[in-house]
Structures are given as C-alpha cells and as structure tokens.
Design goal:
Layout: H1 2-15, H2 20-36, H3 48-60, H4 66-83, H5 109-117, H6 121-133, H7 137-141, E1 148-149, E2 154-157, E3 166-169, H8 175-193, H9 207-210, E4 230-231, E5 238-239, H10 245-258, H11 267-280, H12 285-292, H13 297-300, H14 302-307
Antiparallel strand pairs: 1-2, 2-3, 4-5
C-alpha cells in the first residue's frame, strides 16, 4: 500500500506542477503522517481526529517550529484533497506550535560593505542581488539570463514564493558584473550545445512542448549554473541545473564571520536589509511591499518595527555616564 499510495501522492504533486523541492517536502510529511498512525491500507486512513493528533504530536513532543508544523499540515491537507478526494476539516482549534516573535536581522550599510569585501565570484553577485533587489536566495539561484532587463534596470522574478511573479529593481552597480556573468554562462552554453548527450535546460510547466527550441536557447539558461551536469529526477534527462541554495548560503556565512559581524546574519538578512534601507531612504511601505512580493502589507510592516526601535522612537533617559 505504502509505495503505491505514495506514488499516487507524487503523481498528484507533479500534476499540480509543484517544484521538486516541494515534492520532496510533501512526500516526507505525508510518509511521516502515515507512519505515525500506522496505516496499513488506504481504507484505514482516518480523518480530522488523526490529523489533529499528529499535529499536536509535532508541537508537544517534537517541539517543531510553527513554520514546520504549518508545512506538515499543508502536505497532509494536499494528500486528503488531491489523492483521497476528502475535505479534511477545520484545524483552527488544535494546539499550534508557538514560537517567539522575532524581528528580522538587519545589517547596517557599513556591515553590508564589509560583507561584500569578503566575497568573490558568482556568490558575491548572488549576495548583491539579494541585497540590491530584495531577492530570496532561491529566487536568486533560479534566475535565468532573460530575467535581467538592463535597459529598464529591473529583474523579473518568475514563480517566486507562493508561485507569484513580480518585477523588482536592479542596481546599476551590478550591471557590469552581471554582463560578465552572462558571458561566462554563454561559454558553458556553447560547450553544452556541442555535446550530443545534453538535453537542454529544464523548463517548468511543460513549456518545452510549446517551445521545443527554448531549452537550447541562451535566454533560458540559468544565470548561476552548476559546474556539472546532473540527471533530472523527473525526466532522467541530462541537464545543467542552477547552483543549489546552500552554495550561496555557505558563502554568506563565511563572509559574515570574516567581516567580524556579530549578528546571526544569513542570506535572508540581505533581503531584510534591502527593505529596511529602502524605508530609511524614504520609500513608502506600499512600494517596498511590491518590491518584496508580499501579498499582505502587514508582512512588510515588520520593517517599520525595526525602524521604530532605538533612537528614532525613544530618547534614552541616560545623561551622565
């Protein structure tokens, strides 16, 4: 039952054109849920009570983060709706995992400069896009050559978080480095084209059927390609994928240490810093919301809380020290 049922779940995920990362995540949590309840057959799969019991187990016994618990719930609900054709019910009353409200880690302009001085090559350019355009790390590594518009100084973020697309700003200070990166990509592209075993770059949503030549065009190639080919796990074709997120993440972590920055800064801190520095420069919150791709302005308002802390909001009573 397990392998056949999990294949059904996997096929349902692929029908929805979810990313390979989402596929792996959903399969993990669906499998965990089935094992927790010790289901042996499809007919044994229960309803809302079993789901609630599992979610409480994650919160109370495993101490998972709120986001992890939410991801598990999304995967389970997907299984019920897309595979079992059952509405699983309402879970607003279950014991949710609680976590402290955290303010984003924001770097100063000087810290950003010091961080960049410790970085080299494509990962430095990735960091520049995360800070200069407010991109998430996955949005950065997934960029393709055609997503850059040097004339309009903008970046097209396609199929970002929540499968939403947007246009964000491009710093003119990155143009020269980005053009050099495209030259590097062109060299790899010409080399790949000369190899008969190369199957072209991956295209989402079966676009290769509508545009059969697109996988073999420069514009569709990843801006930050991997060093070597890999086998596409869905099609078994040989492709040159983009670099994995961890390449940029490790490079930023190393740079934070080398720059002697005593903050828990990560790639996402560069995006936080982009938003905060825009607001400091006088940008209105609605503009920042659009640049970041937030569906709700309340998400963006967290950066106003950062600005309102310290000397900009309260005058300290300390005078003589």
């Amino acid at each position: 039952m397990k392998s056949l049922f999990m294949k059904e779940v996997r096929d349902a995920i692929r029908t929805k054109h979810y990313s390979i990362k989402t596929e792996h995540t959903y399969l993990y949590w669906v499998g965990s849920y089935l094992r927790f309840n010790q289901y042996q057959s499809r007919s044994e799969i229960g309803g809302a009570d079993e789901i609630r019991s599992y979610l409480n187990h994650l919160a109370l016994d495993n101490n998972v983060s709120p986001n992890t618990q939410k991801t598990a719930l999304n995967a389970i609900v997907f299984m019920y709706r897309a595979v079992l054709n059952i509405e699983p019910g309402d879970f607003s009353d279950f014991h949710k995992a609680k976590g402290p409200q955290k303010l984003p880690t924001v770097l100063t302009h000087d810290e950003v400069h010091r961080l960049f001085t410790q970085m080299r090559g494509p990962t430095r350019l990735c960091a520049g896009l995360m800070y200069g355009s407010g991109l998430r790390v996955m949005e950065t590594v997934r960029l393709r050559v055609q997503d850059l518009d040097f004339d309009r100084l903008c970046v097209y973020v396609r199929d970002g978080k929540g499968r939403k697309s947007r246009i964000t700003t491009l710093s003119p200070h990155l143009v020269t480095a980005l053009k050099a990166q495209i030259t590097l990509v062109s060299g790899l592209f010409r080399r790949d084209c000369s190899e008969p075993l190369w199957d072209g770059v991956y295209l989402p949503y079966a676009l290769h059927k509508k545009y059969p030549r697109a996988p073999f065009e420069l514009g569709w190639q990843y801006l930050f390609p991997a060093d070597n080919w890999s086998i596409d796990p869905r099609s078994n074709k040989q492709r040159r994928h983009h670099v994995v997120e961890s390449v940029a993440q490790r490079a930023v972590k190393r740079a934070v240490r080398a720059a002697d920055i005593h903050k828990p800064a990560t790639c996402h801190s560069l995006r936080h810093s982009f938003a905060t520095h825009l607001l400091q420069a006088g940008a209105d919150i609605r503009t920042v919301q659009v640049q970041l791709g937030h569906a709700d302005v309340k998400t963006t308002e967290i950066y106003t809380h950062v600005l309102n802390r310290g000397g900009q909001a309260v005058v300290s009573p300390l005078k003589d020290f």
